[in-house]
């Protein structure tokens, strides 16, 4: 299965297996790292004579190690004035954001000036040294609605987690999503900088009919060999799914795209606009670190892309069902990733099934890990919000009704509250394995988004 990957990826740190995908060169986010501290010659926190230069050198070394996707432009300053803040802003106007390290309490309006620039800003406390200024400045900038997040932790991995959000934001601007059989939403590009490209059903079908049958049979054989069992589909049907996967792959290579979403149900139910279900192909793309998304759902495709860049893990789009008697939400769809922790993670079992609603074609039922934290969310570019809930995976539901993959999760929080937002947000949600609350919170703050906890 791993041999089906088609473009190189780069491992880049904040999480294990975190990746970015590119057919060409990978550029880095440019971030100004500002190290603010008072003179060590006078009494102050942490103490008179403190080696601020040594601490700054230590921080810079850790940034280089743990944030390799970012080019840092460092500046050290003992001037806390607003004028100095404006000077620093003017020195490198093309940077994508700022990381302000409160190495000591400098006081003044430097931090407020930087955080008010309109660009994403991470504020970091050096505990027992910069805490007073960090706490007051962060609270004021957050309350004022600026794109700011803060880290006050003795674990530098927490700092790297926040700072690496700049890398995610940069990669979104370098990414392309193909939208097949539907009109691309230009407002997504306006908010995230991600390019969305219309692709016609005709171009999709031309690519499908140009696939080498032998190559499609080889891919299908890999899926069949990897499956725990094949139930309804014939080998010929699975080969058709392999052909549309290879067609998607070729279109993505042609357009240097990192994600694809297809109006699959509209195309299939209307006749021959789509000639095979793309579900197994989406599974493969997700497993390889790319993004495949159902139903031309561009908001969910964007959510998957955001989290792939942030956490290196594929998302599971679903039509959820809620069972209050078990305190469970059941995520249901006719496709699911089988490497839920990313391309380098373990593979969970899957079955090859027919598509549920019409009992045709081929898809997969993914039997996902149980007893694990699952983070479910949706980014909305119009609301400037992220809707969010979490739970622990409890059961791979075996029920013939509705979609083939059905993951039941025990809700963390108030399940009755979870009934309240579907009219405003629609039915789809996107689930990711792991406790991703903190990185999502940091990223949302740097985007200027509000996180709405729906449970």
Q: What's a concise summary of this model?
A:
The chain has 15 helices and 22 strands. By secondary structure, it is an alpha/beta fold. The protein has two domains: 28-168, Dehydroquinase, class II (Rossmann fold); 175-453, L-fucose Isomerase, Chain A, domain 3.
Overview of this protein structure:
- With 455 residues, the protein is α/β, with parallel strands linked by helices.
- It has two domains: 28-168, Rossmann fold (3-Layer(aba) Sandwich), CATH 3.40.50; 175-453, L-fucose Isomerase, Chain A, domain 3, CATH 3.20.14.
- The chain is 35% helix and 26% strand.
- It is built from 15 helices and 22 strands.
- Strands 13, 14, 15, 18, 19, 20, 21 and 22 form an eight-stranded mixed sheet that branches.
- Helix 8 crosses helix 10.
- The protein is elongated, with a radius of gyration of 24 Å.
- Residues 1-25 have low confidence and may be disordered.
């Amino acid at each position: 299965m791993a041999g089906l990957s088609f473009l190189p990826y780069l491992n880049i740190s904040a999480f294990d297996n975190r990746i970015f995908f590119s057919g060409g060169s990978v550029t880095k986010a440019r971030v100004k790292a500002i190290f603010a501290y008072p003179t060590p010659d006078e009494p102050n926190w942490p103490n008179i004579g403190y080696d601020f230069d040594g601490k700054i050198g230590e921080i810079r070394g850790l940034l280089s190690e743990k944030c390799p996707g970012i080019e840092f432009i460092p500046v050290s300053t003992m001037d806390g004035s607003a004028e100095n803040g404006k000077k620093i802003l003017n020195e490198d106007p093309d940077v994508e954001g700022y990381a302000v390290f409160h190495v000591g309490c400098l006081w003044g309006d430097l931090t407020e000036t930087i955080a008010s620039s309109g660009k994403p800003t991470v504020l970091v406390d050096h505990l027992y040294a910069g805490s007073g200024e960090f706490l007051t400045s962060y609270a004021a900038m957050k309350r004022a609605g600026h794109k700011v997040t803060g880290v006050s932790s003795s674990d530098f991995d927490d700092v790297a987690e926040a700072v690496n959000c700049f890398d995610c934001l940069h990669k979104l601007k370098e990414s392309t999503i193909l939208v097949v059989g539907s009109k691309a939403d230009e407002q997504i590009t306006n908010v995230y900088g991600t390019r969305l490209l219309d692709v016609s059903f005709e171009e999709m079908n031309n690519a499908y009919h140009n696939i080498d049958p032998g190559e499609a049979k080889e891919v299908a054989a890999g899926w069949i060999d990897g499956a725990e069992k094949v139930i309804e589909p014939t080998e010929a049907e699975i080969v058709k799914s392999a052909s549309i996967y290879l067609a998607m792959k070729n279109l993505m290579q042609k357009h240097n795209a990192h994600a694809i979403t297809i109006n699959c149900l509209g195309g299939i139910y209307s006749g021959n606009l789509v000639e095979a279900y793309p579900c197994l192909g989406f599974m493969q793309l997700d497993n390889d670190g790319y993004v495949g998304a159902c139903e031309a759902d561009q908001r969910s495709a964007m959510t998957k892309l955001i989290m792939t860049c942030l956490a290196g893990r594929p998302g599971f789009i679903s039509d959820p069902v809620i069972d209050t008697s078990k305190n469970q939400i059941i995520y249901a769809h006719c496709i699911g990733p089988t490497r839920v922790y990313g391309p380098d993670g373990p593979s969970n079992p899957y079955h090859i099934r027919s598509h549920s609603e019409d009992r045709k074609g081929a898809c997969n039922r993914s039997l996902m890990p149980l007893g694990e934290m699952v983070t479910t969310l949706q980014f909305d570019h119009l609301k400037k919000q992220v809707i969010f809930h979490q739970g622990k995976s409890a059961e791979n539901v075996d029920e013939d009704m509705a979609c083939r993959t059905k993951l039941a999760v025990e809700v963390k929080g108030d399940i009755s509250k979870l009934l309240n937002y579907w009219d405003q947000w629609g039915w789809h949600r996107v689930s990711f394995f792991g406790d991703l609350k903190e990185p999502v919170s940091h990223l949302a703050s740097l985007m200027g988004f509000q996180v709405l906890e729906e449970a």
